Amino acid sequence: MTAGGPRIRFDGVGLTLGRTEILRDVRLSVEAGSVHALVGPNGGGKSSLVKALLGQMPHRGRLAIDWPGAPGTVGYVPQSLEFDRGLPMSVEDFMRATTQRRPAFLRRPREGMADIDAALDRVGMADKRLRRMGALSGGERQRVLLAQSLIPNPALLVLDEPMAALDEAGFAVFEHLLRDWRRDGVTVLWVEHDLEAVGRLADRVSGLNRSVLFDGAPREVLAPERLLALFSARPRTAAQENREPADAAALEAAVSAPARPPDGGAHPPLGRMSRSDRRVVQ
Protein backbone atom coordinates (compact mmCIF):
# COMPACT_ATOMS: atom_id res chain seq x y z
CA MET A 1 0.00 0.00 0.00
CA THR A 2 1.44 3.39 -0.95
CA ALA A 3 1.09 6.74 0.72
CA GLY A 4 -1.05 9.21 -1.17
CA GLY A 5 0.21 10.30 -4.55
CA PRO A 6 1.09 13.91 -5.39
CA ARG A 7 -0.69 16.61 -7.30
CA ILE A 8 1.08 17.75 -10.50
CA ARG A 9 0.82 21.31 -11.82
CA PHE A 10 1.82 22.52 -15.27
CA ASP A 11 1.68 26.32 -15.27
CA GLY A 12 2.51 27.97 -18.58
CA VAL A 13 4.92 25.20 -19.61
CA GLY A 14 6.57 25.69 -22.99
CA LEU A 15 9.27 23.80 -24.85
CA THR A 16 11.20 24.72 -28.00
CA LEU A 17 13.75 22.61 -29.86
CA GLY A 18 15.78 24.53 -32.40
CA ARG A 19 13.27 26.79 -34.13
CA THR A 20 10.33 24.48 -33.50
CA GLU A 21 7.82 25.15 -30.77
CA ILE A 22 6.83 21.78 -29.27
CA LEU A 23 4.72 22.95 -26.32
CA ARG A 24 3.06 26.31 -25.82
CA ASP A 25 1.64 27.64 -22.54
CA VAL A 26 0.52 24.23 -21.24
CA ARG A 27 -1.69 24.70 -18.19
CA LEU A 28 -3.29 21.76 -16.43
CA SER A 29 -3.46 20.04 -13.07
CA VAL A 30 -3.31 16.32 -12.35
CA GLU A 31 -5.14 15.74 -9.09
CA ALA A 32 -3.60 13.59 -6.37
CA GLY A 33 -4.63 9.94 -6.58
CA SER A 34 -6.32 10.33 -9.98
CA VAL A 35 -5.87 8.59 -13.32
CA HIS A 36 -5.30 11.47 -15.77
CA ALA A 37 -5.01 10.67 -19.48
CA LEU A 38 -3.28 12.73 -22.17
CA VAL A 39 -4.56 12.24 -25.72
CA GLY A 40 -3.69 13.91 -29.01
CA PRO A 41 -2.07 13.42 -32.41
CA ASN A 42 1.44 12.13 -33.00
CA GLY A 43 3.83 15.06 -32.80
CA GLY A 44 1.45 16.99 -30.55
CA GLY A 45 3.88 17.08 -27.62
CA LYS A 46 2.59 14.35 -25.29
CA SER A 47 5.88 12.49 -24.91
CA SER A 48 7.75 15.80 -24.70
CA LEU A 49 5.54 16.87 -21.79
CA VAL A 50 6.28 13.57 -20.06
CA LYS A 51 10.02 14.10 -20.55
CA ALA A 52 9.75 17.62 -19.16
CA LEU A 53 8.04 16.17 -16.09
CA LEU A 54 10.82 13.59 -15.69
CA GLY A 55 13.49 16.27 -15.97
CA GLN A 56 14.74 15.15 -19.39
CA MET A 57 13.89 18.25 -21.42
CA PRO A 58 14.39 21.93 -20.56
CA HIS A 59 11.17 23.90 -20.38
CA ARG A 60 9.75 27.33 -19.74
CA GLY A 61 7.12 28.00 -17.13
CA ARG A 62 6.53 26.23 -13.86
CA LEU A 63 6.17 22.50 -13.34
CA ALA A 64 5.58 21.31 -9.77
CA ILE A 65 4.98 18.01 -8.01
CA ASP A 66 3.16 18.67 -4.72
CA TRP A 67 3.73 15.71 -2.41
CA PRO A 68 1.36 15.29 0.56
CA GLY A 69 4.36 14.44 2.75
CA ALA A 70 7.84 13.10 2.07
CA PRO A 71 8.47 12.51 -1.66
CA GLY A 72 7.58 9.00 -2.76
CA THR A 73 8.74 6.77 -5.59
CA VAL A 74 8.13 7.86 -9.20
CA GLY A 75 7.46 4.99 -11.62
CA TYR A 76 7.92 5.27 -15.38
CA VAL A 77 6.81 2.89 -18.14
CA PRO A 78 8.12 3.78 -21.64
CA GLN A 79 6.42 2.96 -24.93
CA SER A 80 8.81 0.11 -25.64
CA LEU A 81 12.12 -1.44 -24.64
CA GLU A 82 15.02 -1.30 -27.08
CA PHE A 83 17.71 -3.92 -26.47
CA ASP A 84 19.77 -6.59 -28.21
CA ARG A 85 17.36 -9.52 -28.44
CA GLY A 86 20.28 -11.90 -28.77
CA LEU A 87 21.40 -11.21 -25.21
CA PRO A 88 21.14 -14.27 -22.92
CA MET A 89 19.09 -12.27 -20.38
CA SER A 90 16.08 -13.86 -18.73
CA VAL A 91 13.01 -12.04 -17.43
CA GLU A 92 14.32 -12.60 -13.91
CA ASP A 93 17.73 -11.18 -14.85
CA PHE A 94 16.07 -8.09 -16.31
CA MET A 95 13.91 -7.56 -13.23
CA ARG A 96 16.88 -7.84 -10.90
CA ALA A 97 18.97 -5.47 -13.01
CA THR A 98 16.27 -2.78 -13.25
CA THR A 99 14.83 -2.88 -9.72
CA GLN A 100 17.92 -3.21 -7.54
CA ARG A 101 20.57 -0.57 -6.92
CA ARG A 102 23.33 -2.75 -5.49
CA PRO A 103 25.81 -4.29 -7.96
CA ALA A 104 25.17 -7.97 -8.71
CA PHE A 105 28.39 -9.09 -6.99
CA LEU A 106 27.22 -7.47 -3.70
CA ARG A 107 23.74 -9.00 -3.67
CA ARG A 108 22.67 -12.03 -1.72
CA PRO A 109 21.36 -14.82 -3.99
CA ARG A 110 17.66 -14.24 -3.23
CA GLU A 111 17.82 -10.53 -2.42
CA GLY A 112 14.69 -8.74 -3.60
CA MET A 113 13.21 -11.88 -5.15
CA ALA A 114 10.01 -11.77 -3.09
CA ASP A 115 9.13 -8.37 -4.58
CA ILE A 116 10.07 -9.56 -8.08
CA ASP A 117 7.95 -12.70 -7.69
CA ALA A 118 4.96 -10.63 -6.55
CA ALA A 119 5.32 -8.09 -9.39
CA LEU A 120 5.60 -10.76 -12.09
CA ASP A 121 2.59 -12.55 -10.64
CA ARG A 122 0.51 -9.34 -10.79
CA VAL A 123 1.14 -9.01 -14.53
CA GLY A 124 0.73 -12.72 -15.32
CA MET A 125 4.39 -13.33 -16.16
CA ALA A 126 5.49 -15.47 -13.20
CA ASP A 127 5.54 -18.62 -15.34
CA LYS A 128 7.88 -16.94 -17.85
CA ARG A 129 10.47 -15.68 -15.36
CA LEU A 130 13.23 -17.88 -16.81
CA ARG A 131 12.39 -17.19 -20.44
CA ARG A 132 14.87 -15.12 -22.43
CA MET A 133 13.73 -11.49 -22.87
CA GLY A 134 14.46 -11.61 -26.59
CA ALA A 135 12.09 -14.57 -27.01
CA LEU A 136 9.08 -12.74 -25.56
CA SER A 137 6.35 -11.21 -27.68
CA GLY A 138 5.94 -7.43 -27.71
CA GLY A 139 2.96 -7.69 -25.38
CA GLU A 140 4.86 -9.90 -22.93
CA ARG A 141 7.79 -7.48 -22.86
CA GLN A 142 5.37 -4.65 -22.13
CA ARG A 143 3.97 -6.61 -19.21
CA VAL A 144 7.51 -7.03 -17.86
CA LEU A 145 7.95 -3.24 -18.10
CA LEU A 146 4.76 -2.83 -16.09
CA ALA A 147 6.07 -5.32 -13.53
CA GLN A 148 9.36 -3.50 -12.97
CA SER A 149 7.51 -0.22 -12.42
CA LEU A 150 5.86 -1.80 -9.36
CA ILE A 151 9.14 -2.12 -7.42
CA PRO A 152 9.15 -0.32 -5.06
CA ASN A 153 5.48 0.60 -4.82
CA PRO A 154 5.14 3.92 -6.71
CA ALA A 155 3.23 6.96 -5.49
CA LEU A 156 3.37 8.60 -8.94
CA LEU A 157 3.29 6.66 -12.21
CA VAL A 158 4.06 8.12 -15.64
CA LEU A 159 2.86 5.82 -18.42
CA ASP A 160 3.83 6.60 -22.03
CA GLU A 161 1.46 4.55 -24.22
CA PRO A 162 1.69 1.41 -22.05
CA MET A 163 -1.03 -0.38 -24.06
CA ALA A 164 0.72 -0.02 -27.43
CA ALA A 165 1.89 -3.65 -27.72
CA LEU A 166 -0.49 -5.39 -25.32
CA ASP A 167 -2.65 -8.31 -26.41
CA GLU A 168 -6.12 -8.97 -24.99
CA ALA A 169 -4.73 -10.68 -21.88
CA GLY A 170 -2.38 -7.74 -21.40
CA PHE A 171 -5.30 -5.29 -21.62
CA ALA A 172 -7.01 -7.12 -18.76
CA VAL A 173 -3.82 -6.99 -16.69
CA PHE A 174 -3.43 -3.26 -17.32
CA GLU A 175 -7.04 -2.50 -16.40
CA HIS A 176 -6.65 -4.44 -13.17
CA LEU A 177 -3.46 -2.52 -12.33
CA LEU A 178 -5.22 0.80 -12.96
CA ARG A 179 -7.97 -0.16 -10.53
CA ASP A 180 -5.37 -1.12 -7.92
CA TRP A 181 -3.49 2.17 -8.38
CA ARG A 182 -6.70 4.19 -8.02
CA ARG A 183 -7.63 2.24 -4.89
CA ASP A 184 -4.18 2.85 -3.39
CA GLY A 185 -4.22 6.58 -4.13
CA VAL A 186 -1.43 6.46 -6.74
CA THR A 187 -1.33 9.45 -9.09
CA VAL A 188 -1.22 8.23 -12.71
CA LEU A 189 -0.34 10.40 -15.73
CA TRP A 190 -1.19 8.24 -18.74
CA VAL A 191 -0.37 9.04 -22.39
CA GLU A 192 -2.68 6.97 -24.58
CA HIS A 193 -4.04 6.68 -28.14
CA ASP A 194 -6.85 4.22 -27.32
CA LEU A 195 -9.75 6.62 -26.81
CA GLU A 196 -12.17 3.84 -25.90
CA ALA A 197 -9.92 2.72 -23.05
CA VAL A 198 -9.43 6.31 -21.90
CA GLY A 199 -13.19 6.86 -21.87
CA ARG A 200 -13.71 3.82 -19.64
CA LEU A 201 -10.70 4.02 -17.34
CA ALA A 202 -9.54 7.62 -16.87
CA ASP A 203 -10.89 10.00 -14.22
CA ARG A 204 -9.94 13.00 -16.33
CA VAL A 205 -8.55 13.56 -19.82
CA SER A 206 -6.67 16.42 -21.47
CA GLY A 207 -6.36 16.91 -25.22
CA LEU A 208 -2.86 18.11 -26.11
CA ASN A 209 -1.69 19.45 -29.46
CA ARG A 210 1.16 21.80 -28.54
CA SER A 211 -1.25 23.40 -26.04
CA VAL A 212 -4.19 22.03 -24.06
CA LEU A 213 -7.32 22.15 -26.24
CA PHE A 214 -9.67 20.56 -23.71
CA ASP A 215 -9.61 19.19 -20.17
CA GLY A 216 -12.35 17.48 -18.22
CA ALA A 217 -14.20 14.27 -17.42
CA PRO A 218 -14.08 11.76 -20.32
CA ARG A 219 -17.85 11.72 -20.82
CA GLU A 220 -17.83 15.51 -21.20
CA VAL A 221 -14.81 16.13 -23.43
CA LEU A 222 -14.46 13.03 -25.63
CA ALA A 223 -17.10 14.36 -28.00
CA PRO A 224 -16.71 14.01 -31.79
CA GLU A 225 -16.42 17.76 -32.42
CA ARG A 226 -13.69 18.17 -29.77
CA LEU A 227 -11.73 15.19 -31.07
CA LEU A 228 -12.02 16.42 -34.65
CA ALA A 229 -10.58 19.78 -33.61
CA LEU A 230 -7.81 18.09 -31.61
CA PHE A 231 -6.66 15.75 -34.37
CA SER A 232 -7.19 18.24 -37.22
CA ALA A 233 -5.06 21.01 -35.74
CA ARG A 234 -1.68 19.78 -36.92
CA PRO A 235 1.58 21.11 -35.48
CA ARG A 236 3.46 23.29 -37.95
CA THR A 237 5.58 21.55 -40.56
CA ALA A 238 9.32 21.94 -41.02
CA ALA A 239 8.74 24.29 -43.96
CA GLN A 240 6.39 26.45 -41.92
CA GLU A 241 8.94 26.63 -39.13
CA ASN A 242 11.68 27.47 -41.70
CA ARG A 243 14.08 25.22 -39.87
CA GLU A 244 17.15 23.53 -41.34
CA PRO A 245 17.08 19.78 -42.10
CA ALA A 246 19.57 19.23 -39.29
CA ASP A 247 17.14 20.84 -36.88
CA ALA A 248 14.39 18.48 -38.01
CA ALA A 249 16.60 15.42 -37.52
CA ALA A 250 17.67 16.61 -34.07
CA LEU A 251 14.05 17.23 -33.14
CA GLU A 252 12.92 13.75 -34.17
CA ALA A 253 15.81 12.12 -32.33
CA ALA A 254 15.19 14.10 -29.14
CA VAL A 255 11.46 13.45 -29.00
CA SER A 256 11.56 9.75 -29.93
CA ALA A 257 14.47 8.78 -27.66
CA PRO A 258 13.59 7.04 -24.38
CA ALA A 259 13.84 9.16 -21.26
CA ARG A 260 17.39 9.30 -19.92
CA PRO A 261 18.75 10.35 -16.55
CA PRO A 262 20.17 13.87 -16.17
CA ASP A 263 23.91 14.57 -16.04
CA GLY A 264 24.71 11.63 -18.33
CA GLY A 265 24.98 9.37 -15.30
CA ALA A 266 24.05 5.74 -14.91
CA HIS A 267 20.49 5.06 -15.94
CA PRO A 268 18.17 4.48 -12.97
CA PRO A 269 15.88 1.45 -13.12
CA LEU A 270 13.41 2.01 -15.95
CA GLY A 271 10.41 1.94 -13.66
CA ARG A 272 11.52 4.43 -11.02
CA MET A 273 13.53 7.55 -10.30
CA SER A 274 15.67 7.86 -7.20
CA ARG A 275 15.09 10.87 -4.99
CA SER A 276 18.32 12.39 -6.22
CA ASP A 277 16.89 12.29 -9.77
CA ARG A 278 13.73 14.24 -8.89
CA ARG A 279 14.70 17.61 -10.31
CA VAL A 280 11.35 18.48 -11.81
CA VAL A 281 10.03 20.30 -8.75
CA GLN A 282 10.86 23.99 -8.89
Describe this structure in words.
- The chain is an alpha/beta fold.
- The protein has a domain at 7-82 and 158-277: Rossmann fold (3-Layer(aba) Sandwich), CATH 3.40.50.300.
- The protein contains ten helices and nine strands.
- A hairpin with a 2-residue loop joins strand 1 and strand 2.
- Helix 3 (113-122) crosses helix 4.
- Residues 238-282 are annotated as: Disordered.
- Residues 8-235 form the ABC transporter domain.
Number of strands: 9
CATH class of one domain: Alpha Beta
Q: N-to-C SSE series? A: EEEHEEHHHEHEHEEHHHH
Largest sheet: spatial strand order: 5-6-7-3-8-9
* Overall average pLDDT: 82
Major β-sheet profile: 6 strands, mixed
Shape from CA axes?
globular
Stretches with pLDDT under 50, minimum 5 residues? 236-255, 260-282
Enumerate how many helices there are, as a single number: 10
Radius of gyration: 19 Å
Any idea of the CATH topology of one domain? Answer: Rossmann fold
Tell me the β content: 15-25%
Looking at this structure, what is the CATH superfamily of one domain? Answer: P-loop containing nucleotide triphosphate hydrolases
CATH architecture of one domain: 3-Layer(aba) Sandwich
Distance N terminus to C terminus? 28 Å
Question: What structural category characterises the helix and strand content?
Answer: alpha/beta
Helical fraction: 25-40%
